[in-house]
Amino acid sequence: MSKKKDKDTEPQQERETQLTNDARQTNDTSLSDALRRMKQQASESDEKPASSLRFRDILGGDVLWSLVKHQAWLIILVVIITTAYVAVRYQCQQDAIDISRLEKKLVDAKYEALSSSSNLTRICRQGNVIDMLNREDTTRLRTSPPPPFIIEVPQQEN
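Request: output the structure for the sequence above.
Response:
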């Protein structure tokens, strides 16, 4: 029975050893591939080292150009936001000017309405109406000579 167990465990141990070796080999190749890719990316995207910065590069604009090149999208975004800010501010100022102009027109219209109302009230007064009727001979309307009096009607109780 123990021989049978040893025979069964031997192939299992061989499979485990082979799987472990395969995993190590795969792991080693993936690590080496990853390192190779990182070195390639680092060498492609790296700028000149800072030690090569010369006075001629600063005066020539190379330093400024490298900054602008890396920050181009940020610069474009700032220009767009600044333009939008100026446009909105200008529109708000124009709206404020229009509002003040319209408020002035409203005040003028209120004064005109008040003036028209007072003229209408002056014309419609009873004394003015009677004077106008007396001056014009074309109308047959005249004021009553006897003064008006109140007729009192007794209330009936039910």
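The mean pLDDT is 79.
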